[in-house]
Structures are given as structure tokens and as C-alpha cells.
Fold these 2 entries.
Entry 1:
Amino acid sequence: MSHVRSRFDKPADELVIKYTTSLPFDWRLYREDIRGSIAHARMLAKQGIIDPEDALAIIKGLVEIELEITDGKFEFKPEMEDIHMAVEARLKAKIGEAAGRLHTARSRNDQVATDLRLYLKDVLTWTIESAKSLQEAFVGLAEKHIGVALPGYTHLQPAQPILLAHHYLAYFEMFQRDRERFTDCLERTDVLPLGSGALAGVAYDIDRGFVARELGFRSISRNSLDAVSDRDFVVEFMAAASLAMMHLSRLSEELVIWSGAEFGFIEIDDAYATGSSIMPQKKNPDVAELCRGKTGRVYGHLMALLTMLKGLPLAYNRDLQEDKEAVFDTADTLLLSLKVVTGMMQTIKVKPDRMLKSVDRSFLLATDLADYLVKRGEVFRNAHGIVGRLVSYCVKEGKTFPELTLDEYRLFSPLFCEDVFELTAGTSIDSKDNPGGTARRRVEEAIAAARTLLEES
Ligand code: ARG
């Protein structure tokens, strides 16, 4: 019978053990759990709460257990409720009675909250690094393709010419905001709950500041009830992860569209594409599709956690154990997605000719023609109407703007002169010369600013 069941007359039902155990998934917290326990044991000895010899035996035993787990030699017994119980039971088997002193002035409630925060701090640090690598890939692409023009879209209908670099830098901005959100979340995750006990605090003269320093926490929690029941930091992480996945998913959707034969703007590197089991000619963008698909999983975890939390009275409730699989899967999915998409972007092949062809074909200069008339005295709304009729004429005649004669232009407005033929995608792009615009000069400035931002943070 488990060592926490002395007040019971019989062991737990087998199904109950299966239903309640978190060991099959929370074993992943073993490093954090052992780190936390070592810091706790040190503090207990320093404060004279346990003997230094016992503390030494505990620490030595814990270090060995970590190695056993890392080397795959640790036996995870299914009757153990969770990783915390599994480690403590093993410690008891190794060092005997002294193991029982480790849990002095501690509850699994403040222990698990501490483990989870340690885990998430690591995840957040890796996430911030990975998001930065992806941003670097976008800046690299923007520099490499600075001269390439692309149709910009609204409603997925060709709208106005832009620089491809400008498009890439839009993603740089999204992942900059993501990085800021994760950094912000890290600040609130970086708080030590240990010392809160089960809910009320503990009846020993502990030194929480010491434990915080040992474990690298910036501060200690201020309220024991809140500390053991708070999972806001996990929700924040999942919300920030959902936004980052949404950005990855939008990018993925564009890669799927752009790599399709009808667009042909890019080619995904062979290493990041897959084939078909029946159609030999196929080269499919499965990585992008899976990234788009996995985004739904991450949203689901966020909803699951928010829903799990909404009815919980203070303080700890076992429902909280349900946070584990959600947070692990969110972290795994997000980190892997960031890495694989970064690799895919770094190896992407751009086809500037295909982009330019679309720019020339799609009446993208219609707004520029309206602006042309406005600059010669026409009212914008009238200019809009004139160019609209001009486009309708072209569609009926099967012509593009460059194929029109000046006489044809003048059928629609006497303000059109010979210099209308000087309008190109390039002049259109460079005319968007405001902060945040797609003019080459502005985009070059934006690249330099992005580089500085990456160097500074
Ligand atoms: N496995 C539990 C969890 O993940 C640990 C805390 C258990 N505490 C308790 N009082 N049953 O939340």
C-alpha cells in the first residue's frame, strides 16, 4: 500500500490508480523535481530543520536517481501517483529513513507548482531563442531578395505591387511581438512558490529567499493560497503559443498557395517536401500543412486549460494535474514548429520572374493610375471611377495597361499624358515612401532597424 494511505482500510481500486496517476506523463519533470528537492534539502539543513548528514544522504541519493532516470535504468512503477512520489519512494529504497525527512516543510502542492515553473522557464527561454532564429531567417531573406517585386493581395485578389522583402518583414514584426509576449510571460513565471506548503504556508523557520537563489528564481510568491493554485503563467504561455502558432499557420498557408503550380512563386526545398504514394510527379508542402494543422491542437490546449481552471475554488485541486499533458504538448509542438519552419524558410527557393509576371498581369497599377490623375487635379473619387472604367475596357479588349495607346487612355480622361507610360511596378513601390511603406528606401531602413533589434535583444 502507498505510504500516504495509512488512514485507509484498503488499497485504491486498480482503475482508480490508473485514473489518477500522472506518472506516464509527468515523469518528464524529473530534472526539475530533483533540482527543487536538492535546493529544499540544502535549505532545511542550513536552517537546522534536518541534520546535515541526512541532507547529504538525500542530495547524494537524488543525484543518483537523476542519473538512473537519464540512463533509462529507473523503474517507473505504475502504482506511484506521480513523479514526486516515484522519486521519493526510490530515495527511501536507497537511503532509508532519512528520505522521509525531505518532505518536511513541503507539500506536493508547492512542489509541483515549483517544478512546473522551472520547466516553463526553460521552455520559454528556448522559445524566445527559436523565435529569434526565425526572425533572423526573415531578415536574411529580405536582404537577399531586396530587389524582388511581388503582387500584394487583399481578399487574395491582386492589389498593389510590394517588395518581397516588405512581405518577409511583416512576419519579422509578428514574431517580434511573439518574442515580447514570451519574454513578458517569463517574468511572471519566474516566481518561486515553494514554501507555500499545502496551502497555508509552513510551520518551520524556512528561508525562501535562499531556495529562490539556489533555483534561479527572481522572486518568491506573496500569498500561499494563490501560489499553489495559480496556473495563470501556463495560460499566458499557451495564449502566447497560440498566437505564435497562428502566425506560423498563416505563413504556412501562404507557402502552400505560393508553391502551388498556379502561383509558382516559390519552391520548397526537397528536404522540406514530401511525395505522393500514388502520383509520382507530386511534391507536397506537408510541413506547412502540418504546421497549419497543429495550430488547432495548440488552441485546443489553451481552451482545455481555461475551462479546467474556471470552476476551481482555492486552493489546490487535483484538476490542476490536467495542465501537464496540455503544456507539454503545447511546448513540444511550438518548439518543433518554430524550428522546422525556420529550416524551411532558410532553404526556400524564390522565383522572381513568376512574381514579376503576376505583377505585370494583374492591373496592380490601377491605384497608381488613379493617384496619377489626382496629382493632375482630378478628385480622387472621380479618378477611382475613371480607372475602374479603364480596367473594365481592358478586360473586354483583352489588354493590359502597357498595351493601351495614349488615345485609348484619353478616351477616359484628358489628363492622361505620355508620361503615364513611365508608371511601373518599381515606380509604384518607390512612391510608397512613408514610414512603414514598401518603398525600397524604407524597406532598407526597416532591415537595418530589424538587425539592430536582433542585436539588442
Ligand atoms: N500530480 C499532482 C499534480 O500534478 C501533484 C500534486 C498532488 N497533490 C495532491 N494533493 N494530490 O498536480
Entry 2:
Amino acid sequence: MQALKNKIIEEGNVLSNSVLKVDSFLNHQIDAELMQQVGEEFSERFKDAGITKILTLESSGIAPSVMTSLKLGVPTVFARKRKSLTLIDNLYTAKVHSFTKQETNEISISQKFITAEDTVLIIDDFLANGQAALGLMDIVEQAGASLAGFGIVIEKGFQTGGKELRERGIRVESLAIIESLENEKVTFKEEK
Ligand code: 5GP
């Protein structure tokens, strides 16, 4: 998606050979217009997949998910990373090791929001080693729901998550795939 790639080039900060900071439009401040375009792109790609729910992880997955929800006319459910006084019983939980925070969180969602009747699109801001993706997939499996695939805003193609998911036959649609962050420069994978 060209508008997203332009934004990454203009405003992304390469923190190391493996970490990209995009807090001016995705991870802290949110560019609503760009997120709307992201939502339109995901909904276009998945419009024939019979999606009934979008599943994401708080907090950075919520904006692109809600924009996609608006277009597809289905709700977004976000997994919580922290325990909550109001989220106690009848949960699906999974463990996720965070690439950026280097800590393991137990993520949870209420069982009432995803059921065996659902066809789920999982959306996230980044795909790196795939830990978040596996945790969310685990929750979809526990619910007995069908997985339509993944919508990823930024995939770091030099890490293993995308490859592993695709090798398992899972559909992964990434709007920008980064090939390298070496020499403080963002290089995108060429689109076929
Ligand atoms: P994974 O679980 O695939 O290893 O990492 C994905 C999660 O880690 C995403 O939900 C995202 O929050 C975070 N993440 C991974 N790599 C980056 C990165 O380069 N920049 C930012 N801002 N977040 C990242």
C-alpha cells in the first residue's frame, strides 16, 4: 500500500536493525485518515472471506481493526494484555511473548465474544516473529471458530513470523513488507 510505505519512509525511525518506530501515526499518535485507508484495503482484500469478527490485541491493533470493522460491518474484539476486575470469568487465554517489551503477557478475551460460528480475521500492527499471531490464533482455536487469515499493517519480512504462518497455509495479507532495516534505512520487499 503506497500511502503507508510513503508514511513509513517520511516518519518512521529505524531504532536498530530489527526495530522500527512508527509512533507518529500508528503506535502512539494515530493518523486517522491513513488508518481509514488501511481499513479500506483490508476490507477489500477480505471482503469475500465471510468475516464475522475481527480479533486484535490492545492497543496498537485497535485503530486499524476498527476501521476495517466499519467497512466490513462486523465488530472488533481486542484481547487484553492485563487482568481486569471486570474480565474474570469464562475467558480464553494465551501466553504471548512481546518482541518489543521482552516480557510475556497472558492475553485474554471473554468467551462470549468469539464463538464456533465465527469466521475471524486477525489484524495487528506489526508481524515480527509471530508470537502475537500465534497467541491470537490459539484463542480462535479454543473458541472453535474459523480463521480467515491475518491482516498485518507492517510485516518485517526478515523475521520469521510471516514465513511460518504462510508455510502452514494461513493467508497473510501485509500492507507493507520490510525487507531490511540495515544502515538505518527502510527497504521494502518488491511487490510481485
Ligand atoms: P511478534 O509477536 O510477531 O514477534 O511481534 C509483533 C508485536 O510486537 C506487534 O504486536 C508489535 O506490537 C510489536 N512489534 C514487533 N516489532 C516491532 C517493531 O519493529 N516496531 C514496533 N513499533 N512494534 C513492533
